[in-house]
Write a structure and sequence with these properties.
15 helices; 6-stranded mixed β-sheet; alpha+beta; 619 residues
C-alpha cells in the first residue's frame, strides 16, 4: 500500500489542504479494548513514526497512563494516507474508555465526522461501548464497527461480529477485524475510514470560527490550545478573539500534531491543530470556546458544548498547611489539562485550609490526587467522597449541600439526592447476584434485555451516593470481573437521609461527618467509632467516641485512660494515705476530661478516611 511519508506531510501547507481530502475520526471503546495499541499501529503504517522512535502506547504521555494501561487524556494526531492514488490527511483522536472520562470522549466526538467503534474480540460489547455508541449517534457520526485482538487464542470474532452487527444494524461482513498488536487488518481499516467517513463541511471564505476541543499547560510555552477549524482560516501572527472569555491574543505559533507539534503556515476548513498565544493564565482558554478573527469576528459562536457536571465531591487538604498556595496553583494548572475538574476553597476545624473539589467519578478523583502528588510534589489528605444534595428546610429555603458541614441546622422538610441511570452488562449466570447487589443499594429496575444468548443488559435507577464508594468493586467481585458498568445523571429523588455526626470527647469532628440513608446510619456510626477507637492514641483521661443523629447517640466506643501508678512510692503505711492519692488522681482526671482537648493525629485522619484500618490495629 503506498504511503505518504512524514517529511512529505510537513511540506503540505495545512491552510491549502483541500477539505475533500481530510478525514477527522476518533477511536471509541471500553477501557482496555486496545485503542492505544491500534493507534500505535496506525502511526507506524502511515509512516508518521519510525521504528526507532516507536514505543508502546505512544500517545499515552503521562506516566500514570502507561503504568495503569489506561488512556486518561485524549490525544490528537495527523497522519498521511494514500488511497486509490489520492493522498489524504487523517486526523485521529485517541479517546479514554472509562466511564469517568465520558466528557473527554464527547469533546472529541464534536471535532470529528466519524468514529471507529472498537470491541475486544475476546470480551465482546461492554457497557461503556454502548454509551460511547449512543454519544456518537447523537452527534450524527459515521460509525465503523471494528473487532480488535483477533490474534488472541480466546477470541471469538464470529460470535461478537454477529452481536455488533445486530447492535448497529449493519451486515455481519461489514464488521472489520483487526489486531492492533500484529497490525493485521489495519490497512483495510484506514481505507474504510477514507471511504466511509465524510469530508468536513465548512466555508473557507466565511468569517473564521474554530472550536477549542482540548488544551494543555506547558511550563515553558504556556497554554497550548487544540482546535478544529469549522469556517475560514487561522494564520500565524493573526490577532484572534475568544468569544466566551472576551480575551484577545496574537497567534505566536500555529501547527499540526504529527505526532509531535509541527509548525505550519496556517489551518484551513476541517483542519485539526494547535495554537500557542503565550498566555500563562489558565482561565483564558476555555474548552468549548469559539476562536474567531479579532478584526472581522463571527457573529455567533459554535454550539454543542456544555460544561461537565461534577458528580462526586471530596475535600483535598495539604498535610503541611504551608503547602496551601502550592495546592491552589497546582489545581489551577490541572484545571486546564482537565476541564471537568472543579474546586472552591473551604476550611475544616480538623484539617485546616483546603479545597472542595468536584470530580466525574472515583477514578477521576484517584487520578487527580495522584497527579497532584507526582507532578507537584504535594502530600494530601482526601476526605470521603460525597455527592451534591438539595435540602428543603421547614421555612421553604432550598440549600445545596456538597459537604456534610453545610447541612442546615434545625428541622428539615425534605432532602433530594441525585439519581443515575445505570447500565450493567453481565453474563446471564450472574444476573441474580447483580440484581441482589442493586436491591441492597436501593436500586429500581427499569428493564432487562438479552443482547445475545449469554449476555444480559440490566437498566437500573440508582442513587449516586450508593455507587460512589465500593459499588463497582462489589460488582466486579460478584461477577468474577465479567460485568461492566456505565451510568449517566438522571435527575433527583426525595429520600430518607440523615446527617451522622462523629463526636470526640463531646466535640463534633466535621471531617468524619456523613450524610447517609436512615437505614445505614447505625452501621456507619458503629464502623466509624470502632475505627477511631483503634486509631486515636490513649490520653490521660477517658475519651468517649460517639456517633449521633441530631441529639440522639446511636453508637459509642470508649478510649480507656492511661493510668499512672501513683501508689508506686507507697511501700507501706496506712491505707488512708493510698486512698488519698487515688482520690487526688481521680479529681485530676475529672478536671482534665472537662478542659482537655483531643488532638487527632494526621495519620489517624488519613487512615480513618480510607476504607481500611492500619496494619496491626485490625480487629
Amino acid at each position: 500500500m503506498p504511503k505518504t511519508s512524514a517529511e512529505e506531510l510537513k511540506q503540505i501547507a495545512p491552510a491549502s489542504t483541500d477539505p475533500r481530502h481530510i478525514r477527522n475520526f476518533c477511536i471509541i471503546a471500553h477501557i482496555d479494548h486496545g485503542k492505544s495499541t491500534l493507534a500505535d499501529r496506525m502511526l507506524q503504517l502511515t509512516g508518521v513514526l519510525s521504528e526507532r522512535d516507536m514505543r508502546a502506547q505512544y500517545l499515552d504521555r503521562m506516566d500514570i497512563e502507561r503504568e495503569r494501561g489506561i488512556t486518561i487524556k485524549s490525544q490528537a494526531v495527523r497522519m498521511p494516507w494514500t488511497c486509490g492514488g489520492q493522498p489524504y490527511v487523517l486526523n485521529m483522536i485517541d479517546t479514554p474508555g472509562h466511564v469517568d472520562f465520558t466528557y473527554e470522549v464527547s469533546r472529541s466526538l464534536a471535532a470529528c465526522e466519524g468514529a471507529v467503534l472498537l470491541v475486544d474480540a475476546a470480551q465482546g460489547i461492554e457497557a461503556q461501548t454502548l454509551a460511547n455508541l449512543y454519544l456518537a449517534l447523537e452527534n450524527d457520526l459515521a460509525i465503523i464497527p471494528v473487532l480488535n485482538k483477533i490474534d488472541l487464542p480466546s477470541a471469538d470474532p464470529d460470535k461478537y461480529a454477529r452481536e455488533l452487527a445486530a447492535l448497529i444494524g449493519c451486515e455481519e461482513e461489514s464488521v472489520i477485524r483487526v489486531s492492533g498488536k500484529t497490525g493485521a487488518g489495519v490497512n483495510l481499516l484506514l481505507d474504510e475510514i477514507v471511504a466511509q467517513v465524510p469530508a468536513p463541511v465548512g466555508d473557507a471564505n466565511a468569517k473564521t470560527r474554530a472550536m477549542i476541543f482540548d488544551s494543555v499547560y506547558d511550563t515553558y510555552r504556556g497554554v497550548v490550545t487544540y482546535v478544529r477549524v469549522v469556517d475560514g482560516k487561522l494564520l500565524p501572527r493573526q490577532r484572534v478573539h475568544m468569544m466566551s472569555t472576551k480575551e484577545s491574543h496574537e497567534l505566536l505559533e500555529i501547527g499540526v500534531i504529527s505526532p509531535e507539534p509541527v509548525p505550519s503556515r496556517g489551518l484551513g476548513v476541517g483542519e485539526v491543530g494547535y495554537l500557542i498565544t503565550g498566555v500563562k493564565d489558565v482561565r483564558q482558554s476555555r474548552v468549548g470556546d469559539t476562536v474567531t478573527d479579532l478584526r472581522n469576528p463571527a457573529e455567533t459562536p459554535l454550539s454543542g458544548y456544555k460544561d461537565p457536571q461534577p458528580m462526586v465531591f471530596s475535600g483535598l487538604y495539604p498535610i503541611d498547611g504551608s503547602d496551601y498556595p502550592a495546592l491552589r496553583d497546582a489545581l489551577d494548572k490541572l484545571k486546564l489539562n482537565d476541564a471537568a475538574l472543579s474546586y472552591e476553597p473551604e476550611t475544616s476545624v480538623a484539617l485546616g485550609f483546603g479545597f472542595r473539589c468536584g470530580f466525574l467519578g472515583l477514578l477521576h478523583l484517584e487520578i487527580v490526587t495522584e497527579r497532584l502528588a507526582r507532578e507537584f510534589d504535594l502530600d494530601l489528605i482526601a476526605t470521603s467522597p460525597s455527592v451534591n444534595y438539595e435540602v428543603v428546610t421547614e421555612s421553604g429555603e432550598h440549600v445545596k449541600v456538597a459537604n456534610p458541614s453545610e447541612f442546615p441546622e434545625g428541622k428539615v422538610k425534605e432532602i433530594y439526592e441525585p439519581l443515575v441511570d445505570a447500565t450493567i452488562l453481565t453474563p446471564k449466570d450472574y444476573v441474580g447476584t447483580v440484581m441482589e447487589l442493586c436491591m441492597q443499594r436501593r436500586g429500581t429496575m427499569k428493564n432487562m434485555d438479552y443482547l445475545s444468548t449469554d449476555r444480559v443488559e440490566l437498566r437500573y435507577s440508582l442513587p449516586l451516593a450508593e455507587i460512589v464508594t465500593d459499588f463497582f468493586d462489589q460488582l466486579k467481585s460478584r461477577t468474577k470481573g465479567y460485568a461492566s458498568l456505565d451510568y449517566k445523571e438522571e435527575g433527583r429523588q426525595a429520600a430518607d437521609l440523615v446527617k451522622v455526626n462523629i463526636l470526640l470527647n463531646h466535640e463534633t469532628v466535621d471531617a468524619f461527618s456523613a450524610i447517609v440513608h436512615k437505614d445505614s446510619a447505625y452501621s456507619y456510626g458503629v464502623e466509624m467509632t470502632a475505627k477511631l477507637k483503634a486509631l486515636i492514641p490513649r490520653q490521660n483521661f477517658e475519651i468517649p467516641v460517639q456517633a449521633a443523629v441530631g441529639t440522639r447517640i446511636i453508637a459509642r466506643e470508649t478510649i480507656k485512660a492511661l493510668r499512672k501508678d501513683v501508689l508506686a512510692k507507697c511501700y507501706g503505711g496506712d491505707v488512708s494515705r493510698k486512698r488519698k492519692l487515688l482520690e487526688k488522681q481521680k479529681e485530676g482526671k475529672k478536671r482534665m476530661k472537662a478542659i482537655g482537648r483531643v488532638e487527632v493525629p494526621q495519620e489517624a485522619f488519613v487512615a480513618a478516611l480510607s476504607s481500611e484500618l492500619p496494619e496491626g490495629k485490625k480487629k
